[in-house]
Automatic annotation (TrEMBL):
PANTHER family: ANKYRIN REPEAT DOMAIN-CONTAINING PROTEIN 39 HOMOLOG-RELATED, HETEROKARYON INCOMPATIBILITY DOMAIN-CONTAINING PROTEIN. Residues 1-143 form the Heterokaryon incompatibility domain. The lineage of its organism: Eukaryota, Fungi, Dikarya, Ascomycota, Pezizomycotina. It comes from Hyaloscypha variabilis (strain UAMH 11265 / GT02V1 / F) (Meliniomyces variabilis). Residues 262-281 are annotated as: Disordered. This is HET-domain-containing protein. InterPro entries: HET (IPR010730), HetReg/Transcr_Mod (IPR052895).
Amino acid sequence: YEALSWCWGKAAANQVLRIHNGYGVFGLRISSNLKNALRALRGTTGVRRLWIDAVCINQQDVRERNQQVARMDKIYGHASNVCIWLGEGDEDSKLALDFIKENLSNAWEFDSLIQDPKKAKHWGALISLMKRPWFSRRWVVQEISLSPRGGTLYCGRESIPWQEFSDAVSLLVEVETATRRLSDMLKVDETFRYIPDFVGDISSLGASLLVYTTSSLFHSSAGGARTPLSSLEHLVCRLSMFEVTQPRDTIYALLAISTDTRPSGSEQVQPSMAGKHTTTSAPRARLTKNLYTVDYKLPVVDVFKDFVEFCIRNGDPVRALDIICRPWAPALIDSHEEKEYSHRGPPPPPPPPGYIFLPSWISDLRGAAFEMEQHPTAGLRMERQNADPLVGMPDASRNRNYSAAGNVVLDPMRLKFVRWNSEASNYPRYSMFVPGFILDTVSSVEHPASNGNIPYRWLAAGRWLNTEQNPPDEFWRTLVADRGSMGRNAPSYFRRACKETMRFKPTNISAKGGYLDVKTLINDGGCTIVATFLRRVQEVIWNRSLMRTKRHHLGLVRDDVRPGFKICILYGCSVPVILEEISKEAYEISAERQKRRIEPRPTYYRLFGECYVHGMMSGEAIAFQHRNQIPTQVFDIR
């Protein structure tokens, strides 16, 4: 059999697939995209056996879905071929696939092809193909990675081996990123010159990211055996820009390709008779080192909580809590079973019926550095929306960026999750109890660095009053979070580069309250040193705010942090975090008193993400705690 990899999308299932069996013919509703795929792929000379998730899994039977999702590694791994359906073909898609087959197989000709004006239309067609929605799906990462033969890519009736397409995309990204030759050629072509940023950053296209990702997930031995290279936490966070329709699949779609999980169905499925479908209560997800239970009956908040707990208990104990600072969860959850949303800012009014709030320690994708966006002309591409997480990626092969808690590890016996039932919602809410201490308090907060531009008022807040002199150490180091690229120490020339940026004074910073246009300086400034420095600045400050603490430390915080919020060190977290103390409602205190049989504290904390505090990122906070005898406390974070 062959397995189909396709894009479900949000289109209604308004087509009918007629299925014949021994009892007659019955209809199954499918989407137009799937119907088109079946028409294009069906055999013309004989039977073609296709495994298709929407047809071969009873989507209404949760038990069956649990079991079948846990078998995806076998289904796609044992298929004779994976059929990748990009959608209906057109003149451009045929031109693109023919171009790859006829021209791009010869690497020696690649440099001349990418500069040939006669091939502009062909390159444009290939780039358009790379912007199709299939490339943004999270499930396809697993489906392509598990196929030992790579699969075949179909667009209408045209097809090409996945490996050929993948090689062409890799070559294009490599050459264009290094030389920008294709961009320069298309800018003067009559067809594309009026489409702004048609090529853009080609490495950020969904197809480019997918090709890079699938080529780096496994290690292949000389004997052909393939070994996963990444943990589940690493995959979920690294692939956050790839989309899912069902929020639980944020995690479930990657279980089969991680180093530390093996998917398992929550219960066995018995053959069901037509009209006799039944469901039973599913047990709670079981979390062990190698077994991770797939259970679509669990509320989404339970699935997400279990993932966070799995990461904490299986991670490096010195930075196990970094997962609460690393954006990974869908910000808005909307399914036919439940609706959930999270929030930032002060506690909102009770949610409307059918909605719940996710705990603040489940970091959602509104805080992610990048997201996929569909542009009218530029197509589907990844664009920066926030600064990079200070905690970096959970990659054991690299040193951690920071060590704010020194070598103090999280004691797993002191980590607790408590499930509450809210009067305002039928869905559960959670507290996470973790030890740490209050280091400082936010005193003042400046305007955020919108789109990575430096607000002019930051200079005064950073005590750089005379730009003819060198910037204060704490200021320029805070702008880059005291690091260069790849987590290395900040190079010493960054100080000079920071001073040089002030030589450029566009009109928009002449008045108090303006900003320094960083993007313009990078693209048009003509200084490599300044551009390198400012690219790092954008990675750090994008939509963050500059703050000063009561103990006079300079730092960076999320744009919704306010004066009075607490700066805390949590044991097992590599960076400081911001917590807001909130008074509990009377009904919450009463419920806790009954549940825990002890007198509850009158307040709890809400997490407002990670922060940078200059001079407190490498264990100095622990020394400060000891000198000042600051007691350890257990934070109830909700």
